[in-house]
Write a structure and sequence with these properties.
By secondary structure, the chain is mostly beta strands. It has no helices and eleven strands. Strand 5 and strand 6 form a beta hairpin. The protein is globular. It starts with a strand and ends with a strand. The mean pLDDT is about 95.
């Protein structure tokens, strides 16, 4: 069992930066792959970025590569997503998610993740 709580969302203008964070409970947090997903109105939930339990490997959606950076601090049980040069199309609810099974490869599929936070709203105006 793990509890995930996101924070840091807000209303910003295009070109601004935000950092959203996820605080996790549970002694086995450091064994989980972690992901950030987002869902905009009328769209399916999609991966934004993911990071292995060691922090040694990451993946990103093509639409955010070079602008967003995922990181984790296992000593603090936190995962963060630094979002730079935000665009209106980044507007969505952002979710933190945990994969319990320490898979051999990171997944872009939300069904592979077992625990989810409540989400935090990010709105980017033109």
């Amino acid at each position: 069992q793990v509890q995930l709580v996101e924070s840091g969302g807000g209303l910003v203008q295009a070109g601004d930066s935000l950092r959203v964070s996820c605080a996790a409970s549970g002694r086995t947090f450091s064994q989980y792959h972690m992901g950030w997903f987002r869902q905009a109105p009328g769209k399916e939930r999609e991966v934004v970025g993911a990071i292995t339990w060691t922090g040694g490997s990451t993946l990103y959606a093509d639409s955010v590569k070079g602008r967003f950076t995922i990181s984790r601090d296992n000593a603090k049980n936190t995962v963060s997503l630094q979002m730079n040069n935000l665009k209106p199309e980044d507007t969505a609810v952002y979710y933190c998610a945990a994969d319990r099974w320490k898979r051999s490869a990171l997944s872009r599929n939300p069904s592979r993740y077992d625990y989810w936070g409540q989400g935090t709203q990010v709105t980017v105006s033109s």
